[in-house]
Amino acid sequence: MGENLNLFTSTQHVIQDALTKLGYSEEMFELLKEPIRMLTVRIPIRMDDGKIKVFTGYRAQHNDSVGPTKGGVRFHPEVDEEEVKALSMWMSLKCGIVDLPYGGGKGGIICDPRTMSMGELERLSRGYVRAISQIVGPTKDIPAPDVYTNSQIMAWMMDEYSRLRENDSPGFITGKPLVLGGSQGREKATAQGVTICIEEAAKRKGIQIEGARVVVQGFGNAGSYLAKFMHDAGAKVIAISDAHGALHDPDGLDIDYLLDRRDSFGTVTTLFENTLSNQELLELDCDILVPAAVSNQITAANAHNIKATIVVEAANGPTTVEATKILSERGILLVPDVLASAGGVTVSYFEWVQNNQGYYWTEEEVNDKLRAKLVEAFANVYDTSVNRQVNMRLAAYMVGARKMSEASRFRGWV
Ligand code: NAD
Questions:
Q1: Active-site annotation holds for 106
Q2: Distance 112 CA to ligand 1 centre (A)
Q3: Residue 293 CA: which ligand 1 atom is closest?
Q4: Averaged over 27-55, what is the pLDDT?
């Protein structure tokens, strides 16, 4: 609870810093410091043992001046109001950075999906949609998967919404299975986005991807696809890690072999005897370091020992505020999470566009469009950082806050 309250207040500070740098008045901060709409719902579900359990759920909509709001639904025991609000504000920033016609939204249900049957999960997913149906929809607020929710849950939610509205509504939600209007390229979208950011950062630093030494922390959805993309592009992935340790080979690891041996939890290091710790991995001599696992990995304690030229944050919040400052002073180019991990929401947007037009793109078309969006977003953030002499993180927040502030101003809200 306390931690999520911190997340919420720190998010408010981020928005305030960006608005101040952009020269907006205090009134703009008053508008953007909280979501415009926050719904709390209670969802009664019949469990498999015949008893009724009442779950609490939330949907936050931060700012809809640019267009409908958009953001994932999280199923987790520690979800609370502050976390959902803060994450909806982060989504507004992300959508602004990649220039999507959306504001930020977020949802969550307090539950532990790991202890629930498929039937219970289906009833809960449908119950949530019935409870929030008045404020969501393809032109109002479009949910998506997040922590512990997946394409099956999106399919149940889409089906429930379509039944309520009595028309097929694939554009109500993204992250759906392909047969129900999902997009090609969605599964690999986050790693594709990180790869594009690495290429753009490397160009700015005069590093060739071919032969570059890359270290990746985390070997799950984001980290493993990323390692594969880098390996295929001719880079030398010299170290990877998971929750149990790290593998290191200065001549480059055999990523295809490791992918083949990895289990469904993203674990592979337990198969080997000689492993490094995750801390040692971060401090390896390399060109590109990609934290793709958990938050708070690069801190004031180790930021002075990072040897990479470029750090690209595939995970959410892997670098603390103090460490960001240290890396920036040391001339290390840090590509922040709100930019580097925006590939997922960008392809979610493409999924919604395809649903609306009823015509579907090939994976190649999706990837080309993703590249165009992220190359432009990277250039905007990088140029803002150079021109305004701020680090890439603050520059990203500035780019992210600018569009919704301008849209709110033109609408006459502020
Ligand atoms: P995942 O659950 O698929 O994989 C996580 C990986 O990290 C696993 O290999 C696990 O063993 C490893 N890990 C866990 N704890 C660790 C630790 N303390 N040290 C080192 N490794 C550890 O998760 P994911 O989907 O790949 O997400 C990773 C990060 O990327 C998260 O911060 C997530 O929020 C962020 N992210 C993911 C997506 C996405 O589409 N998957 C989108 C945006 C952001």
A1: yes
A2: 19
A3: 7
A4: 98
